[in-house]
Every structure is written in C-alpha cells, then in structure tokens.
Design goal:
Elements (H helix, E strand, L loop, with lengths): L1 H7 L2 H4 L12 H9 L6 E3 L1 H9 L4 E8 L5 E5 H6 L18 E4 L5 H12 L8 E4 L4 H8 L5 E4 L1 H10 L3 E5 L13 E6 H6 L1 H18 L5 H11 L5 H9 L8 E2 L1 H13 L21 E2 L1
Parallel strand pairs: 4-5, 4-6, 9-10
Antiparallel strand pairs: 1-8, 2-8, 3-6, 3-7
Length: 295
C-alpha cells in the first residue's frame, strides 16, 4: 500500500521520481525481473530475499514497509467452542489443531512450512493434521466459512476478513506476542547492490518517498482517501475488509525494523531446511543498504 499511496498522492513526483508500478505476483519472478533490470526494486517479504542472498545474489533491503510479524493462526468457531485447551497458556491451545484440517496458501509454501513450525511448538507433527491448499486473502476465510477447513495459517488481511468481516473464526494463539514469529519481518523494498551503487541518490529519494507515504497512511485524517486508494488498487477485496485493514493500518506499516528479525528469518529458513547452514546473511547488515534504519 505505501507504493500505491506514494504514486496516487504524487509523493514520488515530489521527490523528483517518475515511478512505474508493476504487479508481479511470484517472488522468484520478482528476483528474475531484478536481475534482468526490468524492474529497479521489488516489494516483498524477507524470506525470498534471504534465500536469493544465500545463492550469491547481491540483494539489499532499502527500506522496511511492514517491519513486524504478519502471521496468524485462526480457528473456526467450532474448534474454539469444542477444544478444552483454548484458554490454556501458550503453546497448549495449538493442540486444538490435532486431527483438524488446516488451510494454507499452497503446499510447500511459506504458509505451509510456517504452519508446521507453529504445530511443533506444541509437540505436534506435520502428519498430525490435514493440510488444505486454500489460497490467500479473503479466499481462505471463505473456505472456513464453507466448512472446508477448521483452521488456517495466514497473513493479516486473511485474518481480518475471517475474524472481523465474516466472523467465522478467532485467533487460536496470539502469534504477534508468542511463538517463533514474534520477532519477524513482514515486508520491505529490495534492490540489487550494483544498481544501488550506480544510483544511490535515486534510491534514497525512493526510500524517503516511501517513508512519507507511510506517515500519510498512519494519519487518521487520511483514512477516507487511503480507503479509496486501497480499493482502486485491489478492487476484488470487499469493502468491509478494506475498512478493517485501513482502521488498523497504524499497526502494520513502518520504516524501522529490528536487526534480530532478519537473523530470526535466516535461522528459521536453516532450521526448516530451506537454506543450507551458514549460507544466509549472518546479521541484518549483510542484507541491507545504507538507507535502512534498525532498532
């Protein structure tokens, strides 16, 4: 959303930038586009960037946009009403998932592997549940509404739709404050170091524009305009979901991340065999450009 706002509100232009925003859905395709120089920067999570860095690609973060966890474990009302562990301290409520159907974006994706990681917190194994490919966003909430899944592991928009709009589920555990994804990194802007070295001023201006856009988003006075921008760029998202996301946008967006969140991601990728030991960035500074602020 910060990129949409910076474009729509003329913030890029105010910083002397002429920016074309392209929609590329797959992370690996974004990396390929960076390497072919068909794009100058990409907006994505840290896992795809850390993985690319581990293969020797000189990718660097230029600014965070969502510098915190985006993950949720949502359970249906039926699970919440019938499970005896619901009100127990973390991680015991996760035992409610045993024998149930858990929705994820697709098998083998970050949401699937992340879901397995959460189950392990309570001593469960991947085979203790059934995994259901259920897409993302509102679609996974609709799968719960249709009775096709009992729980899902998903990002904030999906959780907002399921819990606040159609009201078919609730957080089984609070993954923002408990578990392996507390110190996490949601989203950021990434570019290749050779391009950054060639045009440092351009990327500094881009970083400043994103910061201004996030400040604009977080101002409640702009909520009506922010809603219109979100809806214009994501027309298939329901009005109620857009309203709920905008109402809590100050919880999402920011430009300062914790250095340890990047290290957490490298550790998680290694632990889950998505990354060979010793191949990922050892610290946040190994994968960030001079424009990034860490707390």
């Amino acid at each position: 959303m910060p990129v949409w706002v910076a474009q729509d509100q003329g913030i890029f232009a105010q910083h002397g930038l002429d920016v074309e925003v392209k929609t590329i859905l797959a992370g690996p395709t974004m990396i390929s586009a960076l390497n072919s120089q068909s794009i100058d920067a990409m907006l994505n999570g840290a896992t795809i960037a850390v993985t690319a860095s581990a293969t020797g690609q000189p990718i660097k973060m230029i600014t965070p946009t969502i510098p915190k966890s985006i993950y949720n474990l949502i359970a249906s009302k039926e699970v919440m009403d019938s499970c005896p562990y619901v009100n127990e301290p973390y991680p015991k409520p996760i035992l409610c998932a045993k024998g149930k159907r858990i929705g994820v974006v697709a098998l083998g994706t970050e949401s699937h592997i992340g879901g397995i990681t959460v189950l392990e917190e309570a001593g469960l194994k991947e085979s203790d549940v059934s995994w259901v490919p259920a897409s993302a966003g509102e679609m996974i909430g609709s799968s719960m509404q249709a009775g096709q899944i009992d729980l899902f592991f998903g990002e904030d928009t999906a959780a907002t739709y399921a819990t606040e709009v159609i009201k078919v589920g609730s957080p089984l555990v609070d993954l923002k404050h408990d578990g392996p994804f507390v110190d996490w990194f949601g989203n950021g802007v990434w570019a290749l170091e050779p391009q950054l070295q060639r045009s440092p001023d351009k990327y500094q201006k881009f970083t400043d524009a994103i910061s201004d856009a996030i400040t604009w988003i977080n101002d409640p006075a702009n909520s009506t305009e922010a809603r219109a921008i979100f809806k214009k760029n994501s027309p298939n998202t329901s009005d109620a979901t857009v309203d709920a996301v905008i109402a809590s946008s100050h919880d999402y967006f920011g430009t300062t991340a914790t250095c340890s969140s990047i290290e957490t991601i490298t550790t998680w990728l290694t632990k889950t065999n998505q990354l060979a030991a010793g191949k990922g960035p050892a610290t946040c500074h190994d994968i960030s450009w001079q424009t990034v602020s860490f707390s």
